[in-house]
């Protein structure tokens, strides 16, 4: 069974958010919309890091199947397309912690895809969203 700080493998072998209740909307967005897609995880991490480094960043939307996440230097706002009450705003540091933890889950769940996804993202975007946070080795 795969388990990280915020995520654990469900009985259906999919990631399930198991973090604090105040982060449920954030965790649900990650599992429902980003899913185990390495390039999407890296893009979301990159958006948070760009917002952290630029006080004038955003807003930039990250759309998905069920949610829209809006990144800005003030944080990440998440809205569910179908359930009006499922929404929340999260500080960048909390969003980054959840996203990095999901990356850790991805590394355990999809180890053969990690390096190729990371290489592709860095090549296409010219920067490493994991720099100083996680090491990716071939």
Record the SSE blueprint.
Blueprint: E1 7-9, E2 15-17, H1 24-34, H2 38-53, E3 60-63, E4 67-72, E5 75-80, E6 87-90, H3 92-109, H4 114-125
Which features does this protein show?
138 residues; alpha+beta; 4 helices
Walk me through the structure.
The chain has 138 residues and is α+β, with helices and mostly antiparallel strands. The chain has one domain. The protein is 41% helix and 19% strand. The chain has four helices and six strands. It has helices at 24-34, 38-53, 92-109, 114-125, and strands spanning 7-9, 15-17, 60-63, 67-72, 75-80, 87-90. The strands form two sheets. The protein has a four-stranded antiparallel sheet. A hairpin with a 5-residue loop joins strand 1 (7-9) and strand 2 (15-17). Helix 2 (38-53) packs antiparallel against helix 3 (92-109) and helix 2 (38-53) packs across helix 4. The longest helix is centred in the C-terminal third of the chain and has 18 residues, at 92-109. The protein is globular, with a radius of gyration of 14 Å. The two termini are 25 Å apart. The model has no long low-confidence stretch (mean pLDDT 94).
Distance between the termini: 25 Å
Low-confidence stretches: none
> How many DSSP-defined strands?
6
* Residues in helix, %: 40-55%
- Major β-sheet strand ordering: 3-4-5-6
Mean pLDDT: 94
Compute the number of helices: 4
Main beta-sheet strand count, sense and barrel state: 4 strands, antiparallel
The radius of gyration over CA amounts to: 14 Å
Structural class: alpha+beta
Q: Which strand-content bin applies to the residues? A: 15-25%
**String of helices and strands:** EEHHEEEEHH
Envelope shape:
globular
Tally of domains: 1
């Amino acid at each position: 069974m795969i388990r990280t700080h915020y995520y654990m493998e469900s009985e259906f072998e999919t990631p399930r958010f198991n973090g604090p209740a105040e982060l449920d909307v954030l965790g649900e967005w990650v599992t429902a919309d980003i899913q185990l897609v390495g390039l999407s995880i890296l893009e979301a991490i990159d958006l948070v890091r760009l917002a952290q480094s630029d006080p004038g960043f955003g807003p930039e939307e990250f759309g998905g199947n069920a949610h829209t996440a809006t990144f800005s230097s003030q944080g990440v706002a998440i809205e569910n397309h179908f359930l009006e009450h499922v929404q929340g705003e999260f500080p960048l540091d909390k969003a980054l912690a959840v996203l990095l933890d999901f990356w850790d889950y991805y590394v355990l769940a999809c180890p053969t895809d990690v390096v190729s996804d990371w290489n592709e993202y860095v090549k296409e975007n010219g920067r490493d969203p994991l720099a100083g946070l996680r090491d990716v080795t071939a």
